[in-house]
Write a structure and sequence with these properties.
The chain is of the alpha/beta class and 303 residues long. The protein has eleven helices and 14 strands. It has a six-stranded mixed sheet, with helices on both faces. The chain has a four-stranded antiparallel sheet with strand order 2-1-4-5, with helices on one face. Strands 12-13-11-14 form a four-stranded antiparallel sheet. Strand 12 and strand 13 form a beta hairpin.
């Protein structure tokens, strides 16, 4: 099977609101496929359709060869799904939570004795098997939730904002686990708004207002999407300078990045003009994924 996920013009409408509009995508086995977009862009709705939880309004798709519309129950039995609100039982221990979910997935007792220790090791929870979940940090809980999700050994894993609300260190540890799983053949589709995580995805799709507006490798997106010369400048009260800079005829767009401004010029030969206007020296930079994301979102908003 070349692609484990395929969709053709997949659409979901709620009343008169088009949440997902004619999305077509292909995901290969063992890929980490990043799904990025602003809040309300249609990411979670798309994942819920792919998981067989939500029926498409129109279009078609398959997951692991099963049809989204006709074989949703078969899809549910073969996948792992984890959201940021994944339910763990605070009044049970680490081991008891894993044992409970192993029971939900009908894993035989003999097999559970092997898999539960594997999940504890994967989640770096060795020595905490008897600890009550209520006492765990958010990072520990998130890794335990992942263990509960993959104890059934799904072929494909859907992760919806899995690292929201946990520390940067815990996020990095979590993503290392995901990379190891992908290296062993598990396909992972992950929604995230953290660009450092997106950098580790094999491919990234950007969705805005229900429309898929880009789908490529991180490197291709950074190299090919933004046309012009991107520069970085440091100005006092940078936030209040964005509108004025965007009014300049040779500036295509301007965005704020912490204390710095990223300014997209028509071409490199406009840098001296910008320097004279701002009174500071502009530095040419390579677009980051965040620059690409902002550029695409603004393009879509502007029609």
């Amino acid at each position: 099977m070349e692609y484990v996920v395929t969709t053709r013009e997949l659409t979901r409408v709620f009343g008169s609101f088009v949440a997902v509009n004619k999305i077509s995508m292909n995901i290969k086995q063992g890929e980490i496929y990043g799904f990025l977009g602003p809040n309300g862009s249609g990411k979670s709705t798309t994942i819920r359709m792919l998981c067989g939880i939500l029926e498409p309004t129109s279009g078609s798709g398959t997951v692991l060869g099963y049809d989204l519309a006709r074989e949703a129950e078969k899809i549910k039995r073969k996948i792992g799904y984890m959201s940021q609100k994944f339910s763990l039982y605070d009044d049970l221990t680490v081991y008891e939570n894993l044992d409970f979910y192993a029971g939900v997935y009908d894993i035989p007792r003999r097999e559970r004795k092997k898999r539960i220790p594997e999940m504890i090791e994967m989640a770096m929870l060795k020595g905490r098997e008897d600890e009550m979940v209520v006492n765990l940090s958010s990072g520990w809980k998130q890794r335990l939730a992942l263990g509960c999700t993959i104890i059934s050994r799904p072929s494909i894993l859907f992760l919806d904002e899995p690292t929201s609300g946990i520390s940067p260190t815990s996020r990095r540890q979590f993503f290392k686990i995901i990379q190891k799983m992908a290296g062993e053949g598990t396909t992972v589709m992950v929604t995230t708004h953290f660009m450092d995580e997106a950098e580790h995805c094999y491919r990234i799709a950007f969705i805005a207002e229900g429309n898929l507006i880009a789908d490529d490798t991180p490197e291709n997106l950074k190299n090919n999407v933004i046309q012009g010369c991107l520069v970085e400048i440091s100005l006092p009260d940078a936030l209040y300078k964005v509108d004025d800079l965007e009014k300049l005829p040779y500036v295509k767009e301007c965005s704020i990045h912490g204390p710095l401004l990223h300014v997209l010029l028509e071409s490199q030969n406009r840098i001296e003009e910008l320097d004279r206007y701002t009174g500071v020296k502009a530095k040419i930079i390579k677009p980051s994924l965040e620059d690409v994301f902002i550029f695409l979102a603004k393009q879509k908003k502007g029609g």
